[in-house]
Amino acid sequence: MRTVGVEEELLLVDPDSGDPKALAAAALARAAHDDPGQDVFERELFGQMLEFATHPQAEMTDLGEEIARCRKEAARLAGQIGCAVAALATSPLPVSPSLTVNERYLWLADRYGVGTRDQLVCGCHVHVSVESDEEGVAVLDRLRPWLPVLTAISGNSPFWQGHDTGYSSYRSRVWGRWPSAGPTEPFGSPERYHRRVADMVATGVILDEAMAYFDARLSARYPTVEIRVSDVCLYAEDALLIATLTRGLVETAARDWRAGRPAPDHSVSLLALASWQAARSGLDGDLLDPHTLRPRPAGRVLRSLLDHIGEALDDSGDGARAEKGVEELLRRGTGTREQRRLLDHTGSLRDVVTECVHHTQG
C-alpha cells in the first residue's frame, strides 16, 4: 500500500488579539530543547509560520492521529512562548511579514521583491509514494485535471489584509505569483520532466530545482509525488480527507498508466481557468468538471471524483471513510465558509482568528 505524508504550515498568532506573531524561531528552539532529535517542525519563509511534517503512513487512521498529535504539539510549543497556532491559510488581520533570515530566503527577497513579501500563506502538501520516477511522471500527467478539486475542498483563505477577497482560496492566487507555480503540460517521461526543470533553473529566473513550484511534482527529497495545491485546512479531518483522496488519485493514475490508458490532453490554459474557478467559489458554486472542463455543481464534481477513484479507495479500505468525509464536508462547508460565518456572527476578524485557534486543536 502506498504511504502518505502530510506537511502543514500553521500561522502563529497572539492568543488574545489574533495578530500574527513572528515567533517561529522561539518555537523551534523550544522544540529542539524538548527533543534534540525532533524532525517534525521546520522553519518557513516567514517568522509567523510554523511547519510540521508527519512521517509516512500506510494506514489513514494512523495518519489522522499523527496530524492531530502534531497540531496539539505545535499548540503546546506556541503556548510556551506566549502565542497560539491557527490553521489559517492567510491571516484575516493585517500583517507585515517578518522574513526568516537565511541565505535562501534573502535571495528570494532580493530576486522577487514585493512578490516575496506577499507570500505569508499557509499550505498543505501531500506526499504519496511511487515506485520510480517513471511511475511518478505518469501519475503527474494523469492527476492534472483533478488538482483544482483539491483546492476547492481545502478552501480556507477568504480574507487578506483585513478585507474579504471574494475568494474561497485566496492563498492559491497569491502562491500563483511565483514565476514557476501552476499547472503543467504532460511531461511524458522522467527525462523530459528533469530536462524541463533543468532548463528552468538554467534561465536564472529560479534558484534551483526546489523552486519548480508545480501544482504537483516529483519530490527532490523522497520517492514520492508531492501535491501542493491545497490550503492548510481549518479542520484536521479535512486534511486527512485530502490525503485520502490524493492517495486514491495517485493509485488510480498509476493503474491507468499500467493499463495503457493515455493521460488527458487538457491544455494548461484551461487547467489554469479550472484552478481559478476552484479558488474563487470553492464548494459554494460551480467547478470545472475534470472530464469536460465545463461548469458543473461542486457537489456533483465531488461525486465524480469518488467514482473516479472508487476502486482504489475500496482496495485500500478507505472507501467508506472518503464517502463520509465528503458528505460531512458538503454539509458543514470548508474553512472559508466557517470563517465568513464567524465574521457574520461576531463582526470581528479578531474573533474569527481566536475561534479558529480552537478549531485548529480540534
Describe this structure as you would to a colleague.
α2 packs antiparallel against α9, α6 runs parallel beside α10 and α14 packs across α15. The two termini are 28 Å apart. The radius of gyration is 19 Å and the shape is globular. Strands 1, 2, 3, 4, 5, 8 and 9 form a seven-stranded antiparallel beta sheet that branches. A hairpin with a 2-residue loop joins β6 and β7. It is built from 15 helices and eleven strands. It has one domain: 2-Layer Sandwich (Creatine Kinase, Chain A, domain 2). It has 362 residues and is of the alpha+beta class.
Q: Which descriptors would you attach to this protein?
A:
single chain, seven-stranded antiparallel β-sheet, 15 helices, 11 strands, globular, ATP-binding, GCS2, Putative glutamate--cysteine ligase 2
Summed up, the domain count is 1
Helical residue percent band: 40-55%
Determine Rg (CA atoms, Å).
Answer: 19 Å
Q: Based on the structure given, which CATH architecture is correct? A: 2-Layer Sandwich
CATH class descriptor: Alpha Beta
DSSP summary: helix tally: 15
Average per-residue pLDDT, rounded, comes to: 97
* End-to-end distance: 28 Å
